[in-house]
Structures are given as C-alpha cells and as structure tokens.
Design a protein that fits this description.
The chain has 21 helices and 20 strands. The protein is of the alpha/beta class. Strand 12, helix 9 (266-270) and strand 13 (279-286) form a beta-alpha-beta unit. Helix 14 crosses helix 16. The protein is globular. Pfam families: B12-binding, DUF4080, Radical_SAM.
C-alpha cells in the first residue's frame, strides 16, 4: 500500500513539520507493515502540474494534503485533478483549513475524508484500517461522506507529545532550510484572532526529549530551528530551562522563538547571556490601543509589553515585532500611535500585518458586528471595518511594503534616521514617502535595489533637503551594507572624487601599513570597500574630506582617514 503525504510550503526554505510527524508517528508503531509512506514537498511557486505528475508517479492508494491559508487554492487544484487521473485514490485533507471547513470541503466530490484536529494518532489508525479492509465509520477524529450526508466523528484524545519521534530523519539541506520544531501545543491565552486560543490548555514534551532532538538537528548543521510553540515563555521557568539547553548545544544554530512581550522579565533576559546571537525572538505587540486590546483579549499593559521588547533589544538579541492593522476599535490615528511607539524601539524587523479572519476564530464569528468586510479567499484578509476605511488600509499596505524594502533590509539605516529627523514622527515620514512614491507608480512595478537609492534621493530633492549630504549618506549606507551589485548611479562619485579615490588606492604601501600588515593587498581589495566623502559621515553635515574603509563581509566601518 502506497501513501503520499503532500506539503505545499510558502517558500523553498520552509519545511513541513506536519507531514513528517504523521510519517514518524506511524512508523513508530507500524514500520513492519506492508505500507510505504512517502513525503512530497513543494512550494506554492512551483508548477502545479509538475507536482501533480510527481504525485501520480507514486501510483498511490491514499494521498493526504496538509491544508493551510497559504496553499489552499493550490491544494484544491491538485486534489481535483489527481482524482480525475486516479479516480480510485483516496484523497484526505488535514490541517487548520480542513478542520474548520468540513462541510465546504466535503461538498467537493474529489475530497473523500478529513482528519480533524491533531492528526498523528487518527492518521495511523486510519491507514491501518484501510490496509486491513476494516470499517472506518466509527473511527474517531475523521469526517467523511456517506449516503446520509456528511458525518463528523468526535475527535481523538490529544496526542502525548513525548510519543512523537524526532521526525527530520531524511537527508535534507539543513544549512539552507528552516527546520520547524515544537516543544508544546496549545496556548494559555485567548486572543480572538488566533486559532491557538481554541485550545486553552498547554501540553509539553519532556525537556530530556527536547534536548535529544535539538542535539540531533544541531548536529546536522541546521542553520535555523524555528519553534512553533505559540508562546515560548508562557512558563518562565520552563523557558529558561530550554535556554540552558540552547547554551549546552555547541555550534552556530539559531533558535527562533515566539515570545509574549509582557512576560519578558529581567530574569529571563539575564539568562540570555552568551547566546544572544544564536537567538531570534518574535513578539506580537499587535496594537497599543486599549479598547482594541480589550476587545481581542490581549493584555492592556502596553508599557510592560513595550518594556519587554526594549529589554531584549538592550541585550542585543535580534527582535522581530508584529503589528496588526484592522483590529476592532483601532483607527488610522491610533494605529499611527502604535506604529511610532514600536518604531522608536528600533526592532531588527518590523512587520505590519493585516487582520486575517481565520475560520474557527472568535473574531470571524463577530465580524458582522464589527462591520468587518474581508476577502472570501484565503488568507481572509480584512478590506475595511467600522473604524478603518478601505483607503486607509491600502495606505497602511503601502507603508508596510516600504518598511520591508527600506527598514527591514538594513541597507538604509543612516539615511532613514536623517529623513526621520525632518518629520514629527516616523509614521509621518513613511506616510509622506508613500504619497510621493505612489505618484511615481512605485507600487505597480518591480523595483531594483539601485532604484531604491534613486527614490530616496529624489524624495529628499522633493523635500528641499541637503542633497549633497543625502547623496553621501546614501553612498555610506550602500558601502556599509556590503556594496554588493551595481553601484547606484545616483550616488556615484563625480570625476574629481573618482580620481582622489583612485589615487588613494594606488598607494599600496600606505594601504598595507594602514592594515598593520595583517592582510596582503589582494586580501584588502577583496574584503573591503573604500569610499571617498566630503562630509563627516554619517553623523555631521560638516564639510570634511575623508576616506572611509568598510569591512564588506562584516558590514561595518573599520577605518576613517581625514585627507
């Protein structure tokens, strides 16, 4: 009996934990059975007919699809056409998009069965029953169609997480993929926009198992292990114990965890010492509007949440912070306030997300009372509500794209700081930049890296700022970020400056002496970028001729020479 489990990921670097867990859990008890479980991973950007061909080549009896908001339409296409090519194959859906749309999915003639909720135990029992030709009508945790209509059985008991084997056992390019791992399921919080709020209790794996699994993954030179625990630090004592596990594991694997910001304590931060650069924390502030926080059942202690982000930043841990636009009671002005409060903390990444009305969530059930109108197709994103118009949300969409292009890229840090100083608030800067770039049709075409420097320069020109200074500031940021790719023409040197820089580079003995004979000339030219400036960059607008030497690999300024 051949079974294929299909995971369609959003990006190539992602991996599908769900299908691996199903396979590992099954083989734990039934490895000797004459059943072959095959995994097939692809991405939403792959050609769907190529994926279909790969599935058909297995000649499977059963095909299971893991269904999420990012792959919903792709999976429907694959399942429908698979059924046409192999009419006898059993098509099974699982995952959050399946569990909360049972009737809608089973009404499609190409969907035979849905696994509800956690699938490990249900899937194993289902496959064995199918192999033995046993009846499945009373099997817990499934929904299916019969002559009487759709039947939904009660769910299985929750899976003991200690019984789920470490499921990344196949050969994988661990250095270039994100490996997902979970130490807990469920969430103690009840945020109305989140599916995790539906399971209010938390179940955990023993820390001995966690350490064993993580050692295996780190031993495979895994670059990033991303924890899917909904709130890594809900239990501070346990979170600290896991941090100690990270510390005991040698190597340079980075551990990505989602934290509840108001639970970040000084004790927690103190235990990060020595592993700061091997961590990446994601924190959801969402909003700072008290009425909105109350309505979505989040903490109203905004200052405590912001302090949590600040503590982590001061510790030097890379921090990603989320905001959500479109929440009930959040207006354009109140969202602006939230943006500014978070932006001033200077997180390493700032994500402006937009409310998604996920099936099964409380906020979706109350959407009509909030005046929320949202897209009918996944990811069910908001169009407008009582407090924020469609136009206002589209403006925020544009600002979100600017944040990704300019702020999150870390290519324009000094230039952005200069612009921000010329506005009352950071939001005002991005709002005016949005308006300027919209007139330039920026949002309706692809924009090269070179064009981003051009856009900022012309924006400065539009504001009547100090253009010679902003040109050199943009040049400084370009060189500081590694100076990769074509040198943007808008910030290129004039002929006189090129001659000065060229003459500086010609003096080979001086270069070697500057680097104290640590490098050969060839090594200096390979690992450094050298720029000529007429201002005391990046801090002062004072005229001062100088040469700056940048470490192109470490992306830092290493030498300033006044000439």
């Amino acid at each position: 009996m051949r079974v294929v489990l299909v995971g369609i990921n959003a990006k190539y670097i992602h991996t599908n934990l769900a299908i691996r867990n199903l396979k590992a859990y099954f083989e734990k008890d039934y490895k000797e059975e004459d059943i072959k479980i095959n995994l097939l991973e692809a991405t939403i950007n792959d050609f769907l007919d190529d994926i279909l061909e790969r599935i058909v080549e297995f000649n499977p009896s059963v095909v299971g699809f893991s269904l999420y908001i990012w792959n919903f339409n792709q999976v429907l296409y694959l399942a429908e056409n698979l059924k046409k090519v192999l009419p006898e194959v059993m098509v099974i859906f699982g995952g959050p998009e399946a569990s909360y749309d049972i009737g809608g999915l089973l009404s499609r003639d190409y969907v035979d069965l849905i696994v509800i909720g956690e699938g490990e135990d249900t899937f194993s029992k289902l496959i064995i029953a199918l192999k033995k030709g046993e009846k499945i009508e009373e099997l817990r945790g499934i929904a299916f169609k019969d002559e009487k209509g759709i039947k939904i059985n009660i769910t299985q008991e929750n899976v003991d997480m200690n019984l789920i084997p470490m499921s990344y056992e196949e050969e994988l390019d661990f250095q270039n993929r994100i490996v997902y791992y979970e130490t807990s399921r469920g969430c103690p919080f009840i945020c109305t926009f989140c599916l995790s709020s539906l399971e209010k209790s938390v179940r955990v794996a023993d820390l001995k198992k966690v350490e064993e699994d993580l050692r295996i993954l780190a031993g495979k030179k895994t670059k990033i292990i991303k924890f899917v625990d909904r709130s890594f630090n809900y239990n501070i004592k346990r979170a600290i114990e896991i941090l100690d596990i990270f510390r005991r594991i040698e190597g340079d694997t980075v551990f990505h965890c989602e934290l509840n910001p108001e639970l970040v304590s000084q004790e927690f931060v103190d235990r990060l010492r020595g592993i700061e650069k091997r961590l990446h924390f994601e924190l959801g502030i969402q909003t700072t509007t008290p009425e909105a926080l109350k309505e979505i059942k989040r903490t109203k202690d905004v200052e405590k949440a912001l302090k949590g982000v600040k503590l982590l930043k001061e510790k030097g841990v890379p921090v990603h912070v989320d905001l959500i636009a479109g929440l009930p009671y959040d207006t354009f002005e109140s969202f602006k306030e939230a943006f500014n409060k978070v932006y001033h903390l200077k997180p390493d990444e700032l994500q402006l997300g937009f409310l998604k009305l996920l099936k099964g969530t409380a906020i979706r059930e109350r959407a009509q009372s909030y005046g929320i109108v949202f897209r009918s197709q996944p990811p069910y994103e908001i169009l407008y509500n009582k407090w924020m118009s469609y136009k206002e949300l589209t403006i925020l969409k544009g600002i979100a794209r600017l944040i990704d292009k300019f702020y999150n890229s870390h290519r324009f840090e000094n230039s952005l700081s200069y612009f921000e100083r010329n506005f009352d608030t950071p939001f005002d800067f991005y709002l005016q930049l949005y308006g300027f770039l919209k007139e330039e049709n920026f949002f309706f075409k692809e924009n090269s890296l070179e064009s981003l420097y051009e856009k900022l320069y012309f924006f400065a020109e539009n504001l009547n700022l100090n253009l010679p200074y902003i040109m050199e500031l943009l040049r400084y940021d370009y060189l500081l970020s590694g100076g990769k790719g074509k040198f943007p023409s808008i910030i290129d040197y004039n002929q006189e400056q090129k001659e000065i820089a060229k003459n500086f580079l010609k003096n080979k003995d001086r270069l070697i002496k500057i680097f104290e004979n640590r490098y050969t000339l060839q090594e200096i030219m390979k690992h450094t970028k050298i720029g000529y400036f007429t201002f005391d960059i990046p801090f002062l607008e004072k005229k001062e001729n100088m040469v700056l030497v940048f470490d192109a690999e470490g992306k830092k300024e290493i030498l300033k020479i006044y000439i």
